Amino acid sequence: MLAALSVLVFGWVIAAGNTGIACAAVGNDVIPIITGTLLCLVFMIALRVLHRAWWLAVLSALPGLLILVGSVQHAPEAALASRGIRENVVITAVSAVSTNHRFTLAGANGELAQTLEYRGSDPDYRVGDRIEVIRDPEGVVPLEDAAKVDPRGRLNGLVMGVVGWSVLTVLAGWRGHVRRRKGVVYDD
């Protein structure tokens, strides 16, 4: 029981810690991505040790992905939502290299604003479209489409991941307890 509780608390600490790292490193997603990935792998190993079979540990990858995405993307979106400046702009040009698109934006008075980056094969934007963007006055977080900034949704994904890990940890702890009581130590 103590082992299951330890793994459970460890999962919560991973989620909170990686979110804190992402908040401290706003504007640099590489650090929280690396630390989050490594910590999620360590959690999978701890879950494997708790119940001595890989199948439940592998199932923890989906909530781990929710935790990773939520913790990494919540911080910049929260920064844009809290201190960002909203502007209405017009897309004046687009350049694409492979699946990376760069849209040139002009403000309401016709002056060139910034560029909006889009990574993907089929962007929703076309030259001449009017969109609302949020830009960071400090320049730390890249410009984003205001319709796609959703810090609450990222936080909800993070919480769903933590709940998923919690359920899997309780299940693994119970399974390990029952198997040890029956004298079965390892899976065949």
UniProtKB/TrEMBL annotation:
Keywords: Membrane, Transmembrane, Transmembrane helix. The chain crosses the membrane at residues 31-47, 54-72, 155-174. This is DUF3592 domain-containing protein. It comes from Allokutzneria albata (Kibdelosporangium albatum).
